[in-house]
């Protein structure tokens, strides 16, 4: 699914990119549900705006900086609060224009020490959203709405996450929470509650106050100890950026005030990596299937055994009717065992086997990734397989 290009740099194979594309499509759908508007900002940014916000210095050790041929200083943006303020400045004048929620899915750069594969990438994709408000209550409402939308997203994807209250240093502002996914090999240590998602990590909160097995302070459930990876982070930034960058809005009573902001990030490749890690087994990946569907690279793999005409014809019919863009049809002369192993390694939810069973009864053998087996007529297979699609209707 991935290939290393040196420390902290990763490429995705065609199969990896299929899964990533399904995830991106769902991210966009979730942002539409909360009235987010997609925008696009340049990854290269001049120094002046970062001087205004005061972050050129604070990001110094993590930011890639460069000079162009005219000697001007630029950075490869590690985050886009400054850019988003510039984008809405002048377009947002009155309290009537607010709230506004904009987001982008774009490449970010951080000169971070690589730890644990994709987690500490120097270049990665982030879905970052930013909201602008004329009042604290409006900011709070949007913050809660996006928090709930992200939790639903993680549920759709079959990812277990805890919510860790975080301090708010580099981004600045008042309130912030991290979404942290428990995994076997992570970059943080976590104690979390499966019932209410309460969590404390060694990055934020007093980890040493809790042991695995302790009672959850929120709901009385039981805390679990795990390593973990941060997959998302949301902030009530308040007026930290607008104050310094002069973004104001006119209020109903004729006065004006600094615009309140929130920012809401999700790391795309981290999300893929943690979903993969939480569900892999000794045979390989095992993409989860939820009521929403699955981001598995293919919803099914067709494995024809032998090349008699009825097998070949049925394989082609299934391929056409199960969603040809989303089904892997094995051909070529590799052995059935190799095909089974490859399908399981990629985590494809079901194998459609056309072998002896099919020759004897006309039924397709369905072998699910969890080892369960079932039989169905070729006509019934597309409907069964559709529940493994991304968003069920997607491909
Ligand atoms: Zn709890």
TrEMBL record:
Top-level taxonomic group: Archaea
Domain Aminoacyl-transfer RNA synthetases class-II family profile, residue spans: 16-304
GO cellular component, one term: cytosol
Pfam families according to UniProt: HGTP_anticodon, tRNA-synt_2b
Predominant cellular place of this UniProt entry's protein: cytoplasm
This protein's UniProt keywords: Aminoacyl-tRNA synthetase, ATP-binding, Ligase, Nucleotide-binding, Protein biosynthesis
EC number: 6.1.1.15
One GO MF term attached to the UniProt entry: proline-tRNA ligase activity
Known catalytic reactions: tRNA(Pro) + L-proline + ATP = L-prolyl-tRNA(Pro) + AMP + diphosphate
BP-aspect Gene Ontology terms: prolyl-tRNA aminoacylation
Protein's name according to its UniProt entry: proline--tRNA ligase
Subcellular location: Cytoplasm
């Amino acid at each position: 699914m991935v290939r290393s290009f040196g420390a902290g740099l990763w490429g995705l194979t065609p199969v990896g990119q299929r899964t990533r594309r399904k995830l991106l499509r769902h991210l966009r759908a979730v942002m539409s549900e909360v009235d987010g508007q997609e925008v696009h900002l340049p990854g290269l940014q001049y120094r002046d705006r970062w001087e205004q916000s005061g972050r050129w210095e604070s990001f110094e050790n993590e930011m890639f900086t460069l000079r162009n041929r005219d000697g001007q200083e630029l950075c490869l943006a590690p985050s886009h609060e400054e850019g988003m303020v510039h984008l809405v400045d002048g377009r947002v004048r009155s309290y009537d224009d607010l709230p506004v929620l904009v987001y982008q899915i774009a490449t970010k750069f951080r000169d971070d020490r690589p730890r644990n594969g994709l987690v500490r990438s120097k270049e990665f994709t982030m879905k970052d959203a930013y909201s602008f408000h004329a009042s604290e209550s409006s900011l709070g409402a949007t913050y809660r709405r996006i928090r709930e939308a992200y939790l639903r997203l993680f549920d759709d994807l079959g990812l277990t996450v805890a919510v860790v209250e975080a301090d708010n240093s580099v981004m600045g502002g008042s309130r912030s929470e991290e979404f942290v996914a428990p995994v076997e090999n992570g970059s943080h240590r976590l104690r979390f509650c499966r019932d209410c998602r309460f969590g404390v990590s060694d990055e934020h909160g007093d980890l040493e106050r809790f042991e695995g097995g302790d009672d959850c302070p929120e709901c009385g459930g039981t805390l679990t100890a795990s390593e973990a990876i941060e997959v998302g982070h949301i902030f009530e930034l308040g007026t930290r950026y607008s104050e310094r960058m002069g973004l104001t809005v006119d209020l109903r009573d004729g006065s004006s005030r600094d615009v309140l902001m929130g920012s809401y990030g999700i790391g795309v490749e981290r999300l893929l990596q943690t979903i993969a890690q939480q569900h892999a087994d000794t045979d390989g990946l095992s993409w989860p299937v939820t009521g929403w569907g699955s981001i598995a690279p293919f919803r099914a793999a067709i494995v024809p055994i032998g090349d008699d005409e009825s097998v070949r014809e049925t394989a082609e019919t299934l391929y056409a009717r199960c969603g040809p863009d989303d089904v892997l049809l094995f051909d070529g002369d590799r052995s059935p065992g190799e095909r089974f192993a490859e399908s399981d390694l990629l985590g494809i939810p079901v194998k459609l086997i056309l072998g002896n069973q099919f020759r004897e009864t006309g039924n397709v053998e369905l072998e699910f990734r969890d080892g369960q087996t079932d039989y169905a007529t070729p006509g019934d297979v597309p409907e069964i397989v559709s529940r493994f699609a991304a968003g069920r209707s997607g491909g």
